[in-house]
Amino acid sequence: MRQLTKHITDSTSTWSRRQLVSAASVWGGAGLIAGSSWNTTAVAQPAGEKPTRNFRFEDVVDRARALAETPFDDAHDAEWPELAALDYDDYRKIRFKEEARKSLTGGKFQLDLFHRGNLFVRRVGINLLRNGEPTPLPYRHEDFDFDDLVLAPQPDTLGFAGFRIRTPLNRPDVFDELIVFLGASYFRFLGRDQRYGLSARAFAINAGVPMQEEEFPFFREFWIEDGPADQNHLNVMGLLDSPSVAGAFAFSVHPGVHTAIDVTATVLARRTVTTAGVAPLTSMYYTGASGPREADLFRAEVHDSDGLMMRSGDEFTWRPLRNPLDNELSLYPVDQPKGFGLLQRNRDFDQYQDLEATYELRPSYWVVPQGEWSAGAVQLSELTTATETQDNIVACFRPASPLEPLKPTTWRYRIEAMTDGSEIHALATASRTLISDLARANGGPPSGSRLYVIDFTSHDIDYWEKALDQFDLVVESSRGEATGARLRWNPNGPGIRAMFIARAEPGVTAEFTARLMRGDHPFSETWLHRWTRAAT
Questions:
Q1: How do residues 184-221 score in pLDDT, each as one tens digit?
Q2: pTM of the model
Q3: What three-state secondary structure class fits 148?
């Protein structure tokens, strides 16, 4: 049997969990895109001097290099303890006034700002970039509505916690939320008719790695371009910092049905970093078709994402997510990554039955590397959680080679907010995964045998109803045993139902793959599932 992945299981260490950047309601309510205007191919301007040329991405890189060459400075916010003392409910009362929003790019975009406070006390500098010249935005107490909260006026050097961009995304006469940068290096963005769910991050270190404390790089400063009126995208640059790395990031945001962001990331390490996470995605999976099921939960499925999609060469692999009994980390080696993402495939309200959370409208984020990336692995961290209010899923690309001190490394990629991700490939997809313990299904205790049921479907699946004999179901396992593979037509899908029995020894972690083949050609994506059988 081929080795499918490397596994790390840790049931004893305590891993830090990230909340949904704490304030989902504060964040908001409700093919390759070219044309980025950033010049990402030069010197930091001394403070107080008028620029002699346009401020460019290279200037942010120079600032990142200057940070990386000096010890990390985490001194901040000690003079504003009253902001950190704001609780969640009080912080939610602070709103940026509609009349204070900044109009950008000929009125195509609007900018509003987040006040510092609660978990978001770190000062973030925000600059507007007009005609290549940056202008810092001063803090103005009168730009915020504090409701009944009494907060003394603050100096204009207070800065901000982050920002939100609006644009007419869903209808031409309403400025809807498009993207939010708030907290560490987190950002979330939407396509048309989507609702906030998972998050993206600029960079991650030790994300979900057992026995290692996770480090959360953060943005110190942003430059937001007020571009020409005929420009249909928005450009943002950010300066990243953390104890281990500094970096320069450029984001070119293209709103639309599937909003896409072209990202350029240049990172310089202060010290050797062996567990870097590039293009990290953070999500939540509490319960769903692949378990665990809560007997008293009226909602059959509760998750922001239900699977990890990966592309290596011409093979597309679908890995359903889980809420495991113990924290688990999977590494899927790849020489040249072609794409990965966390998808929300199930768009059926009947499976969620949640009028407030609207899980069926959560976006899927798909990352496509641009240019040559080094070898590495797609990393998936699945943390056990007893609540839907905590993120417990992290996916990212982990380079095989460590980041060396002061050696710049650049990654370019596109990240797109899709619906179910059906545009990623034209193969049949694994639309449903069902699992049953054979002994438990017959009234006995859990055994070492499981029945896996996978429904494959496609836009023309009806065409193949009477031709199942043309398909082979290819099932492989890493450490377990797979038997009894067979296919049936499912008229209720409709689709092709694949079934097999999996067996594993106590305490063993095994992964199983299944794929439909027609001769030498794949008819479906590769379905992949991980099973860690309890030791006793």
A1: 999 999 999 999 999 999 999 999 898 899 999 999 99
A2: 0.90
A3: coil
